Amino acid sequence: MPFDGSLLQHHTSRTITHVMVIPKNMQGLVLLHDGFDATGRATGLEDFSDCVELRQLSVPQHGPGQALIRVSRAAVNHADVAFIRGYYGMPRVKGVAAGFEGTGTVVAGDTPLVGQRVSFASPTSGTWAEYALANIAQLIPLRDELRDEDAAGLIINPISAAVMCEIARESGAKSFVATGAGSQLVKFLIPLAREKGCPCIAIVRRPALAQQLKDLGALEVLVSEDAEFAERFRSVSLRYKPRVLLDAIADQVSSDIFFAMPNHSIWVIYGRLAISLPVLNDPEQFIVANKQIKGFWLTSWFLNTAPEEVAKVIADVQARFIDGRWQTNVSETVALQDAMSLLPSAFSQKDGKVLLAL
Amino acid sequence: MPFDGSLLQHHTSRTITHVMVIPKNMQGLVLLHDGFDATGRATGLEDFSDCVELRQLSVPQHGPGQALIRVSRAAVNHADVAFIRGYYGMPRVKGVAAGFEGTGTVVAGDTPLVGQRVSFASPTSGTWAEYALANIAQLIPLRDELRDEDAAGLIINPISAAVMCEIARESGAKSFVATGAGSQLVKFLIPLAREKGCPCIAIVRRPALAQQLKDLGALEVLVSEDAEFAERFRSVSLRYKPRVLLDAIADQVSSDIFFAMPNHSIWVIYGRLAISLPVLNDPEQFIVANKQIKGFWLTSWFLNTAPEEVAKVIADVQARFIDGRWQTNVSETVALQDAMSLLPSAFSQKDGKVLLAL
């Protein structure tokens, strides 16, 4: 039966045929540390095998307003790895499973979505385990046509791309700049921004990605490690006059780009992949050139956005995957049992999204 | 006759008794360089004797919409000295007099204010000369009770203080932080902010100023060169939870303060007295702590604020000087003829406002 938009009916037809057996224990990748990494950020994100462990743990109990989900696929995002290492904006809780988002089937909870396939974010338990909790109000029921590969990472990268595309468009400029453009997030952003008439000037470290990003719809692709990068960026910036820098890295290259951009430019930091810290080259520009630095955090966006608007963005994200305008570029799907040996190296390849199969 | 609010009547009664004789030439402190200082910012602001020269030059001709003013007193602000040295956000024009603001008598122009004492900013000629041009629409007619010492610097510091006090209050916090708190601007800001219920945590380099700023109404005064400054600031910040940093310096101390402030804090850079460049200690805070950096430039404020609002702020500024709530703390008044020998050392004393008498 194809999904017809009526959640309740769909649910009813399914729950009749499903018997949910929930075990007491499960396997999961469990956090080994509490709080933040007090040593400061001395290493990159690639190595996280000393921060999680594959372990048996209790299946979490759902409380009021919560649903329990049997996870099928979970995304491995930069935010996850930053969190595991203690570099993210939330304290770790030792003994709890890692993983911010995934897809699976609702198996318990006071919701008509029991039995349904959903995408979800898990704020209190983690998606890198066979079972995870989610807030019922934030479950995303999925259309049948949506592939599991796209459903696993439906929230963090796609919604960030959709929201940040609007931030770029609101600048009034006809283009914007994005660093770390080889990421899945920017690969979603590039065609979307092109479609909306505000194409992306993509900054990458490795020249290998340039053609792929051009094909996706990037206005220009510049390689930050090129000897003439500064010169090239200046000329592109003069030509297209972008006013927003969407930045996942926050290093000196980002700072140099920002200070080379036109008056009224805003440096929007949404990730911090760099270990080194940026210097502000020309503080005068905040004054006389009306420049600004701010951040973007999807968590804040969810907290500060009306539910109807959130629902609209989510519906559009699903539609884009289903009609093929977007496609998650999965480089590797690692089984939970193999995660400790395979996940760090799969993640460090950086050529596509890594998923965990549960 | 006391000023009665009717400009035209006042003007008429005066112009009858004034005969304006305008000479062809005048004395002024003239810019020796064009554009910006291409060498970058290698020195401080104190030394500017190689950038201006006392010279005879033509009295400027007023065009449509302009008035000519016989300058009596001009302020010597940090912005002037940054400009003279080529560090300010506007290119210098060689051969033109320096000086952004002053007071004097309107001697020519298509305005009922001819014959009147005004405060004014001079965007095209400079106030460090016997005559200067101003836009008629921006002349500030002065109440008779206003002292010349206060009138000379009525615009840049007082209006900046008034506008930035509102920026601090709009943060919703019950206090804010200001660096460079020994400046005339912050000395205006401190009592105003106290009066408005959002007192200032004042940061100074020299302990000598602490008592004076306390007496003016500062909530706390912290000395940035103290060994325990970081610790003290953290504790004050935890206690009072300020959310705005009004910063005239933009050095590492400013950055450290910003990153030690609570979530949602905004670093407002309005001056850049430092030579060294700040490092962003913790870019993650832009994301998860919703921090921001922006600038404040009075020039932009004038361009983007409704004339009625500007007039209201100016009227309030005059009233504050006249009723004694504000008083310009003049350390030295230097005659134009002595300026080349006395001005740089007077300016570098930093214990009060330096005026130029023309």
Q: Key terms for this structure?
A:
homodimer, 358 residues, alpha/beta, seven-stranded mixed β-sheet, 12 helices, 15 strands, 23% strand, globular
Can you walk me through this structure?
In chain A, the strands form three sheets. In chain A, strands 3, 4, 5, 6, 7, 14 and 15 form a seven-stranded mixed beta sheet that branches. In chain A, strands 10-9-8-11-12-13 form a six-stranded parallel beta sheet, sandwiched between helices. By secondary structure, chain A is an alpha/beta fold. Helices cover 32% and strands 23% of the residues of chain A. The longest helix of chain A has 16 residues, at 307-322. The radius of gyration of chain A is 21 Å and the shape is globular. The interface between A and B is medium-sized, with 33 and 33 residues.
Question: How do you describe this structure in short?
Answer:
The structure is a homodimer of 358-residue chains. The first copy, chain A, is an alpha/beta fold and 358 residues long. In chain A, 32% of the residues lie in helices and 23% in strands.
Topology of this structure?
The structure is a homodimer of 358-residue chains.
Chain A: H1 7-15, E1 25-31, E2 52-58, E3 66-76, H2 78-84, E4 101-109, E5 117-121, E6 131-135, E7 140-141, H3 148-151, H4 156-170, E8 176-178, H5 184-195, E9 200-204, H6 210-216, E10 220-223, H7 229-240, E11 244-247, H8 252-260, E12 266-269, H9 284-288, E13 292-295, H10 298-304, H11 307-322, E14 330-335, H12 339-348, E15 353-357
Parallel strand pairs in A: 8-9, 8-11, 9-10, 11-12, 12-13, 14-15
Antiparallel strand pairs in A: 1-2, 3-4, 3-6, 3-15, 4-5, 5-7
